[in-house]
From TrEMBL:
Keywords: Membrane, Transmembrane, Transmembrane helix. The chain crosses the membrane at residues 7-28, 40-65, 77-95, 101-123, 135-156, 162-182, 194-213, 225-247, 254-275, 281-301. Residues 13-299 form the Sugar phosphate transporter domain. It is a multi-pass membrane protein. This is Sugar phosphate transporter domain-containing protein. Residues 343-352, 365-380 have a biased composition (Polar residues). It comes from Linum tenue. Its main location: membrane. Signal peptide: none annotated. It holds the Pfam family TPT.
Amino acid sequence: MAMISKTLVFTYIYLLIYIILSSGVILYNKWVLSPKYFNFPFPITLTMIHMAFSGIVSFFLVRVFKVVSPVKMTFEIYATCVIPISAFFAASLWFGNTAYLYISVAFIQMLKALMPVATFIMAVLCGTDKARCDVFLNMLVVSVGVVVSSYGEIHFNVVGTVYQVTGIFAEALRLVLTQVLLQKKGLTLNPITSLYYIAPCSFVFLFVPWYLLEKPGMEVSQIQFNFWIFFSNALCALALNFSIFLVIGRTGAVTIRVAGVLKDWILIALSTVIFPESTITGMNIIGYAIALCGVVMYNYLKVRDVRASSQLPEAAPERMVKDWKLDKKASDIYVPNNGGDGSTANILSSSDAADEEAQPLVASSRLSHVGRTQASNHGG
């Protein structure tokens, strides 16, 4: 009994750390980018700092300290998998971070309710999911909720909304591509190895829009570059990456989804206190509540599908173990809100991957052994 309570305590500590870091990174990014506060209106530059920092740290962990082993990466896998995934990952972070310049944190969190809709549309287009009536109705509920919430937004800005929604669709396409490309190759990467391969590639993709869009502006304006602010900001983003991995490794689908919803409500409330200009209306709340109902129903359907797909007659103890494992596997259904929070945590998760099981972050050779991927898929 003492053992169970100790495990529970650690699980709740990890969940609390995840909620604090995730909310903190989003609010920190908004504060850095906002013209009213730190006034560093260069979202691509900020994202490039995160990518460079993550790439350097993961290089040291993989090559110098050898915490995990690198996977057997061929040029073919790099060209067909890593490059397209990195491109959409860079795009989702770029658009997501740019939205902070135009719309409030609260409204951004409300728009993020569209994530399951975008993922479902992309999955159907790519042929990894079938168009189903029940899921379509859920998507309709979510979309109506977001439209109502947008209608109630006092400081509605078309440019910011388009940036955020484009970022959400880029993220959805990356998730589906990850599922289609990497899983077919039998390749699994944990957060450290995924950062090792994807962060430098995303940095290169971000360099082109940075050179064209932000470099001229940075030469003209007198920007204040505070090393400690950018260092701590990148460190928070990296810590968030590992915290999500630890949470997925210790909790099931239901817990992590509840934590995600709780985090969104905390963020919406906190952002109105920290940034007084982001006013919330009753229409905002009603719309967001409608959207959340759709998201919860969608997640319920997905968990039910995962469970139904492997309900074979078996002894009670085995069934209990299997249910627990399925709950952990289904945790991937919840997509952490990483559009624009600088987190690279969900690089290699997919919205509907029932065949991936998260492992706790430990210094073990099992973490990235490609040779064992066919036998036991483990993802971040």
